[in-house]
Amino acid sequence: MASGPSQTVAVGGRTLRVSSLDKVVYPETGTTKGEVLTYYVRVADRILPHLRGRPVTRIRWPDGVAGEHFFEKNLPSGAPDWLPRVTVRGHGSRSGREQVTYPLVEDLAALVYLVNLGSLELHVPQWRVGEEGPLPPDRMVIDLDPGPGAGLTECSRVALMVRERLEDAGLEVVPVTSGSKGMQLYAGLDGQRSSEEVSDIARSLARQLTEQHPDLVVWRMTKSLRPGKVFLDWSQNNAAKTTICPWSLRGRTMPRVAAPREWEEIEAAAEDGGLQHLSFTEVLERVEA
């Protein structure tokens, strides 16, 4: 990671050294590392409840989004002793390890520490950890991935179908535009089902919607089936999978955010289109409002 001038800051009772605050992270908009850190500090009270208790996989862009990036699951080298961590067995890493020691982001200091390392994207599973390891999932996620020729308008139409069915089952659903292409729908669970059971429920829902709306929905992962349709990705409920954390930035050309939305916005988009992904400045304006 390219180094630059650093300074010491007090964050949440910890003393941290942050560096290269003037480095441009998003060349398209001139957004700097300092602005990225400021964003995460300002939305900390929103993002931390989604991060706490969940092992965090980071995607790091140490030289900005125009440079190379890499996934990091393991605790970063040189991590301070105060940074919480958890060792998870059975969900392996891409290197084939049987266990991975992840950082936990329980407070603002931990968040700032990881973001300072170039961690733009923060990804988490649908479960939290307890004293004896992973707990049953406390939420279901339905990932709506538009194929070529489809976009947020089509995702919005599918989102309303998913909401209707999940609300009929007594679940409250929250929509999140991903900041990349599509949308995620989250529904809180009571922690009484395994990841396999939740995946089966999501897959069954995806198959039903595909049968009822074959011109709009597809449940199979085959890419040749996706043009003009929305892939309803039920597999994100697998215990080994993670999704972008709500309120996280995305490492794309523009500094967009995985942003929770109001259902009124989704309903309007399903009728008339016009729904767009939100930049970090737009998200901050919403937070302040």
H/E topology pattern:
EEEEHHEEEEHEEEEHEEHEEEEEHEH
What's the helical proportion of residues? 25-40%
Radius of gyration: 19 Å
Helix/strand structural class: alpha+beta
CATH architecture field of the largest domain: 2-Layer Sandwich
Instruction: Examine the coordinates and then state which fold CATH places here, giving the name of the CATH topology of the largest domain.
Output: Alpha-Beta Plaits
Indicate the overall shape. Answer: globular
Q: How many DSSP E strands?
A: 20
Mean pLDDT: 94
What can be said about the biggest beta sheet?
6 strands, mixed
Amino- and carboxy-terminal Cα gap: 36 Å
The main sheet orders its strands as 15-16-12-14-13-19
Question: What does this protein look like?
Answer:
The protein is an alpha+beta fold and 289 residues long. The chain folds into two domains: 6-124, DNA primase, PRIM domain; 139-288, 2-Layer Sandwich (Alpha-Beta Plaits). The protein is 28% helix and 27% strand. The chain contains seven helices and 20 strands. Strand 10 and strand 11 (133-134) form a beta hairpin. The two termini are 36 Å apart. The relative contact order is 0.15.
